[in-house]
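sry for the spam today, last one i promise. C-alpha cells for design, 249 residues
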C-alpha cells in the first residue's frame, strides 16, 4: 500500500462513516422498496466501509455480504455487528466490488453508498447486473452534477477529483442500456452532509492537527478534506450526492 492510500485509509478509519449519507435515509429507502424483495432476502453492500448501511440492511433480516478492499473497515463492521447481535447475518469479504466471486444471478438486492466512483459507474452497474437476480433491486448513492451549465471553477475542480462525474440523466441512460429500470431518486441533502459527514470530519481533522505525532501525509489528508468541505459548502447548488433505486429487468 502506498503512503497516500495509507493516509487516506488511516483518516477514514477514524470516521463513523466513510461518505455522506444518513441512516434515516437508508432505512426509509429500504422500507419503501422492501416489498420488491422475497422472504429471507440475500444481498450485498458494495464498498461497505465500516458498515453504516450494512447494519441497516442486516436489521431488516437481509443476509448481507459486505465487500470492501480495506480489511480494518470490515473488522470494525463486524465488531459493531457483534455488539448488535447481527453478525450471523453478515459475511465480510475483502475484495474489489467488481470481483467478489459472488455467484451470478444470486442476489435479491445490492446496496452501495458513495463508493461506485472507485471502479467507475458503468463498470459497477455492469458487474452488479451479472450477480443480481431478475427483478432484483439496486440502490446506490453517488456524486452527480445537477446541471449541464456548471460554473467553470466547479468543472475544473471535478476534473481533478473525478473527471467521470455525470448528471443523473447520463447515469440513468447508462443504467437503462445495461438492463435496469428506474424506480426512484432522492437527494442526500446538504444537512445530511453536515450532520453525518462534515461534522464528524471536522473533529477528526482537529484531532489530527492537535496530535504532534501525526505524519506529514496525514496532515496533508486533513488539509485536503477541509478544502473539500469548504468547496462543497460554497458550491452545493451544482453538485452533490443522489440516491438512485433501480431494478434489473
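last one done:
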Amino acid at each position: 500500500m502506498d503512503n497516500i492510500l495509507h493516509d487516506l485509509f488511516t483518516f477514514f478509519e477514524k470516521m463513523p462513516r466513510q461518505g455522506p449519507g444518513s441512516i434515516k435515509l437508508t432505512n426509509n429507502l429500504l422500507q419503501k422498496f422492501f416489498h420488491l424483495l422475497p422472504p429471507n432476502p440475500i444481498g450485498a453492500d458494495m464498498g461497505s466501509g465500516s458498515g453504516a448501511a450494512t447494519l441497516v440492511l442486516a436489521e431488516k433480516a437481509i443476509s448481507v455480504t459486505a465487500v470492501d478492499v480495506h480489511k480494518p473497515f470490515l473488522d470494525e463492521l463486524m465488531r459493531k455487528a457483534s455488539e448488535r447481535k447481527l453478525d450471523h447475518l453478515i459475511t465480510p469479504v475483502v475484495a474489489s466490488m467488481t470481483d467478489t466471486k459472488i455467484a451470478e444471478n444470486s442476489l435479491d438486492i445490492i446496496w452501495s453508498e458513495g463508493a461506485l466512483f472507485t471502479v467507475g459507474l458503468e463498470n459497477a452497474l455492469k458487474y452488479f447486473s451479472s450477480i443480481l437476480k431478475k427483478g432484483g433491486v439496486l440502490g446506490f448513492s453517488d456524486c452527480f452534477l445537477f446541471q449541464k451549465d456548471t460554473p467553470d471553477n466547479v468543472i475544473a475542480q471535478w476534473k481533478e477529483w473525478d473527471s467521470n462525474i455525470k448528471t443523473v440523466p447520463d447515469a440513468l441512460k447508462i443504467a437503462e442500456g445495461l438492463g435496469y429500470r428506474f424506480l426512484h431518486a432522492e437527494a442526500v441533502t446538504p444537512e445530511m452532509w453536515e450532520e453525518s459527514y462534515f461534522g464528524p470530519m471536522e473533529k477528526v481533522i482537529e484531532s489530527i492537527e492537535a496530535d504532534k505525532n501525526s505524519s506529514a501525509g496525514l496532515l496533508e489528508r486533513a488539509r485536503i478534506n477541509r478544502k473539500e468541505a469548504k468547496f462543497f459548502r460554497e458550491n452545493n447548488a451544482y453538485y452533490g450526492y443522489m440516491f438512485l433505486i433501480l431494478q434489473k429487468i
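The chain is about 45% helix and 25% strand. ok im logging off now
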